[in-house]
Design brief:
elongated; 6-stranded mixed barrel; alpha+beta
C-alpha cells in the first residue's frame, strides 16, 4: 500500500524550491570538484609510483669534476650497485631570440637505461639541430613545438615536449627552497646534438641503481649511507673530486611533486566535510521551518496513527533526495570535467609524465556515501531536538487554549473531525465550539 504522505513531497519541494536549488547547485560544484580532485590526485600518485619502475628512476647520483676511469667504476660497482653515465651540459638559453639570455637549460643526451623520458607532445629529436624541451618550461616561456630557440651559440629546433622522470620539479640546485621553472629548464638531444654543444659546460654526472632494491625507506637510507661512504673513500684513493652525492630519497627534483600532491588529500577531505556539515544545518533549518508551518497538519497525522519515525522520514525525504542526486551528478562531473581542471592545475606546477585515469573506490566513498551519512545524522539530530515532545497537543499548540474554526462549519459537514474533538477534546484540555 502506497504511503499517502508521498503525495505531499512534490508540494514540499516546490514550496522551498529556491533554497533546495541553491543548495543542490552548491553541492554539485563542491562534490564535483572534490571528486575530480580525488580522481586526478590518486591517478597521478599511482602514475608517480609506477614511474620508478616504468622509467627506471635512479636510486641516486653523484657529480665529479672529471670523468672517472673504467677501473674506478668497476670498484664502485662492487658495492652492489650499477653505475650509469648521465652527463649534461648547462647552457644559456634565449627562448625568444632577442639576443638576451632568458636563463639556463640543462641538456642531457638521449637516455637508454636509466631516468627514461616521457614524450608529452611531438617527438624525440632526430638530428643534431633538434631538441626536446621540458613541457612545463616550454609552457612558461611560450615555446611551441617547431619553434627555434638559441642554446649557447647555436639555434635548435624544438621537436617536442618531454618530461624527464628525475625532474618532476625543476630544481636546479637541491638546496633551493623553491624551484623556478621559467628561468631553469631541462632538455634532451641526440648524442650528435649533445656533442655539438660546448665541451667546457659539461658536468660529469653518474647515476646509481641498487642491484638489490631496498624494502623500505629505512633500508634505502642505510644503503645510501653505506654507498656514499664507500664512494667517498674510493674516489679519494683515486684522486677524484666529488662535487655532489645525492641519494634519490633526498632529491627534491624527484620527490617534491609527489609529496606535495599526496599532502593535499587530507585538507580537501576536511574542507569537503565542513561544507557538507554547513549544508546539513541549512537543510535542518528549512525542515524545522516546514514542521513549524505545518504543525496543525502534523498533529492531525499523529492523531491518525502516524508515528514519529514515519513523520521524521517523511520530512527528511526531500533533503536526502537532493543530497543523493547532487552527489551522483557531482561524481559524474568529477570524472568528466573537474578531473581535467585539477590535472591542469598540477601540470601547471610540475613536470609530470602522462597519466591514465583510474577508478577510485575511495573517491566514491568519500564524496558520495560519507556526505549522505553526514547529512542524515546532522539533520536527524537537529530535528530530533525540536520533535522530542512530538505529541498531538504540542503540534496543535492548543494546550490550555480555546479553539474555534475561523469560518462557519458544522460537525455534520465534517463528521469525523467533529466526533474526534467531541470524544478527545477533554484529553487536550480544549474548549470545543460547534458553529451552527
Amino acid at each position: 500500500m502506497k504511503n499517502p504522505l508521498n503525495r505531499r513531497l512534490p508540494r514540499e519541494f516546490k514550496g522551498e524550491m529556491g533554497k533546495y536549488m541553491v543548495i543542490f547547485l552548491f553541492m554539485i560544484m563542491t562534490i564535483g570538484f572534490t571528486s575530480g580532485y580525488f580522481v586526478a590526485n590518486s591517478s597521478m600518485l599511482q602514475a608517480s609510483d609506477e614511474s620508478y619502475d616504468k622509467y627506471n628512476i635512479e636510486d641516486g647520483h653523484f657529480v665529479v669534476k672529471d670523468e672517472i676511469s673504467a677501473s674506478l667504476q668497476r670498484k664502485l660497482e662492487q658495492e652492489d650497485v650499477k653505475i650509469y653515465k648521465d652527463f649534461y651540459k648547462e647552457e644559456a638559453v634565449d627562448t625568444d631570440n632577442d639576443g638576451k639570455s632568458d636563463g639556463s637549460i640543462r641538456v642531457f643526451a638521449e637516455r637508454e637505461k636509466v631516468n627514461l623520458i616521457c614524450v608529452m607532445k611531438g617527438s624525440m629529436p632526430k638530428g643534431k639541430a633538434e631538441i626536446a624541451v621540458d613541457r612545463m618550461y616550454a609552457d612558461n616561456n611560450d615555446i611551441a613545438v617547431g619553434d627555434t630557440i638559441c642554446i649557447g651559440n647555436s639555434k635548435k629546433k624544438v621537436s617536442g615536449y618531454v618530461a624527464l622522470s628525475d625532474y618532476s620539479a625543476l630544481f636546479s640546485d637541491n638546496s633551493d627552497m623553491m624551484f623556478d621553472a621559467t628561468k631553469f629548464g631541462v632538455a634532451v638531444m641526440t648524442k650528435q646534438g649533445y656533442d655539438s654543444l660546448a665541451k667546457e659546460h659539461e658536468n660529469y654526472q653518474y647515476d646509481w641503481k641498487y642491484n638489490t632494491a631496498p624494502k623500505d625507506k629505512k633500508q634505502e637510507q642505510k644503503q645510501s649511507e653505506d654507498f656514499i661512504n664507500a664512494l667517498a673513500e674510493k674516489t679519494f684513493q683515486a684522486g677524484v673530486t666529488i662535487s655532489l652525492a645525492l641519494p634519490a630519497y633526498a632529491n627534491q627534483a624527484i620527490h617534491f611533486a609527489s609529496d606535495d600532491i599526496g599532502g593535499d588529500m587530507g585538507m580537501m577531505i576536511a574542507l569537503l566535510y565542513i561544507l557538507i556539515a554547513i549544508m546539513a544545518f541549512v537543510f535542518s533549518v528549512t525542515i524545522r521551518h516546514t514542521i513549524t508551518r505545518e504543525s496543525a497538519v502534523i498533529g492531525t497525522l499523529r492523531a491518525s496513527g502516524y508515528t514519529k519515525g514515519e513523520l521524521m522520514r517523511h520530512y527528511l525525504a526531500v533533503p536526502m533526495t537532493v543530497t543523493f542526486l547532487a552527489c551522483a551528478l557531482g561524481n559524474v562531473l568529477g570524472y568528466t570535467y573537474f578531473k581535467g581542471i585539477v590535472a591542469d592545475m598540477y601540470y601547471g606546477s610540475y613536470s609530470l609524465p602522462t597519466y591514465v585515469t583510474v577508478w577510485n573506490a575511495d573517491a566514491f566513498l568519500l564524496t558520495t556515501i560519507v556526505p549522505v551519512i553526514i547529512m542524515i545524522l546532522i539533520d536527524h539530530a537537529c530535528i530530533a531536538v525540536d520533535t522530542s515532545n512530538l505529541g498531538i497537543s504540542v503540534f496543535l499548540n492548543l494546550a490550555g487554549t480555546y479553539y474555534a474554526f475561523p469560518y462557519d462549519v458544522t460537525c455534520f459537514s465534517w463528521p469525523c473531525i467533529g466526533h474526534f474533538f467531541k470524544r478527545y477534546g477533554d484529553n487536550f484540555d480544549l474548549q470545543v465550539y460547534t458553529v451552527e
